[in-house]
């Protein structure tokens, strides 16, 4: 197995880039906080400068903690689109699925996307792509969203080449912090899609797995699963076991057991989160395998 490194220590954005973006946003979009201090979302690199004008609540005084809060406050009248939320200390930009009832999108991929998902630990930590389209929101922000108080659930949406839609939910859902290697925690599953994360037919169990990238090997295989290729394309970062019953970050084959694979290709996939008050608990027995 690859070496196990400690937590990443790189800054969210280098100081020069943040200062430049701050000035541009101030000039073009008058981005200010209530304290007359410039507010630049921590993941501003996930949106081009010209697209900041599409953010619905950029100059709002006090940001909601997630898309569901926006949905509730609006009485369900909010539209799908880009919003600023603040789950913990810093605001971030996200895409909100309001038609579905206020889901915060944390991942979206299109088959054969031009966005490179074969990224480093730092990239997966801070996010990449465009929140308008294909992207990974960032493990750090997934951690913040699911640990700010209250339980969350994970929604999966898959669309195949015939436009057939499969969906599923894991409730509750949590991403642990970077010290814990952004381990995934999953509760019970229900939906029309296969349960590919906690009940795989090939015995790959993703619940309680640490996150693995090409430069940080936390999986249970003798090789780094993120580096293994299919038709010349590496797997990308994921919560691998040894290796996967699901992987929504391999751009040439979106994989979700029988629902999405090389023989039954899918065109789109989404991962989304939303608060839940059901009181369901995490699984009592860890699915973590002993490391090789």
TrEMBL record:
Q: What are the UniProt keywords, alphabetically?
A: Disulfide bond, Glycoprotein, Secreted
This protein's gene is called ZGC:194887
Fetch the InterPro entries from UniProt: FIB_ANG-like, Fibrinogen-like_C, Fibrinogen_a/b/g_C_1, Fibrinogen_a/b/g_C_dom
Which Pfam families does this entry report, sorted A to Z?
A: Fibrinogen_C
* UniProt cross-references to SUPFAM superfamilies, sorted A to Z: Fibrinogen C-terminal domain-like
GO biological-process terms attached to the record: blood coagulation, common pathway; fibrinolysis; platelet aggregation; positive regulation of heterotypic cell-cell adhesion
Q: Which GO terms describe its molecular function?
A: extracellular matrix structural constituent; protein-macromolecule adaptor activity
Q: Where in the cell is it found?
A: Secreted
> Where is the Fibrinogen C-terminal domain positioned along the sequence?
58-277
Question: What is the protein name stated in its UniProt record?
Answer: Zgc:194887
UniProt GO cellular component terms: fibrinogen complex
Task: Report the main location listed first in the record.
Answer: secreted
């Amino acid at each position: 197995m690859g070496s196990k490194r400690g937590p990443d220590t790189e800054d969210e954005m280098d100081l020069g880039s943040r200062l430049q973006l701050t000035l541009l946003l101030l000039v073009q979009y008058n981005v200010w906080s209530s304290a007359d201090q410039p507010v630049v979302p921590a993941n501003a690199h996930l949106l081009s400068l010209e697209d900041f004008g599409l953010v619905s609540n950029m100059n709002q005084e006090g940001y909601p903690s997630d898309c569901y809060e926006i949905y509730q406050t609006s009485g369900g009248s909010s539209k799908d689109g880009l919003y600023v939320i603040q789950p913990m200390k810093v605001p971030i930009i996200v895409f909100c699925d309001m038609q579905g009832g206020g889901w915060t999108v944390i991942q979206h991929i299109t088959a054969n996307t031009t966005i490179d998902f074969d990224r480093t630990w730092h990239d997966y930590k801070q996010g990449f792509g465009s929140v308008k389209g294909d992207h990974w929101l960032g493990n750090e922000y997934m951690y913040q969203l699911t640990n700010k108080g209250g339980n969350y659930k994970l929604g999966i949406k898959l669309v195949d080449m015939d436009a057939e839609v499969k969906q599923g939910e894991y409730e509750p859902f949590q991403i642990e912090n970077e010290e814990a290697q952004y381990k995934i925690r999953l509760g019970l599953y229900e939906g029309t899609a296969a349960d590919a994360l906690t009940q795989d037919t090939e015995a790959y169990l993703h619940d309680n797995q640490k996150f693995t990238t090409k430069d940080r090997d936390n999986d249970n295989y003798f090789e780094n699963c993120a580096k293994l290729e299919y038709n010349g394309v590496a797997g990308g970062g994921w919560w691998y076991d040894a290796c996967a019953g699901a992987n929504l970050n391999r751009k040439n084959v979106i994989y979700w057991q029988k629902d999405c694979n090389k023989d039954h290709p899918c065109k789109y996939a989404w991962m989304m989160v939303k608060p839940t008050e059901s009181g369901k608990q995490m699984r009592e027995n860890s699915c973590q395998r002993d490391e090789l």
